[in-house]
Design a protein that fits this description.
Blueprint: E1 2-6, H1 10-16, E2 21-25, H2 38-44, E3 51-53, H3 61-73, E4 78-80, H4 83-89, E5 104-105
Parallel strand pairs: 1-2, 3-4, 4-5
Length: 123
């Protein structure tokens, strides 16, 4: 498991998450990720089988923009939870604009929010 994390938080997460590797992403000392990182995030995903987006992201608008871009562009299965869901809730149509047919797993409580172009809860 690899965690893509804001660079300013990496030293803390390196110590606290011994079961995972961390991959620091530039955050300019802000402690949050921005939409400008989508290419860099995609390089972290090379060779990975799936990605989870959400826990601990926060609700920064630039981070939410990055999440929506990744939901649309990442070509491997996604699991969305917590703040990943908050980001997608601002524009749920991003689920129907995915460039890949890879599945997106969402909590069952989201069934009524999924665009009609998604045939199941796992778009």
């Amino acid at each position: 498991m690899t965690l893509a994390v804001p660079a300013s938080l990496n030293p803390i997460l390196e110590v606290k998450t011994t079961e995972a590797m961390t991959f620091p992403l530039e955050d300019f000392g802000n402690g949050w990720l921005s939409g400008d990182l989508s290419v860099r995030v995609e390089s972290v995903l090379e060779g990975k089988d799936s990605v989870a987006i959400g826990p601990g992201l926060g609700r920064n608008p630039e981070t939410a923009q990055l999440v929506r871009r990744l939901v649309e562009e990442v070509g491997i299965p996604l699991v969305l939870d917590a703040d990943g869901l908050n980001a997608v809730s601002e524009d749920v149509t991003v689920l129907s604009r995915r460039k890949s047919g890879a599945k997106v797993d969402l909590p069952q409580s989201w069934a009524s929010r999924v665009p009609r172009s998604c045939s199941t809860i796992g778009c």
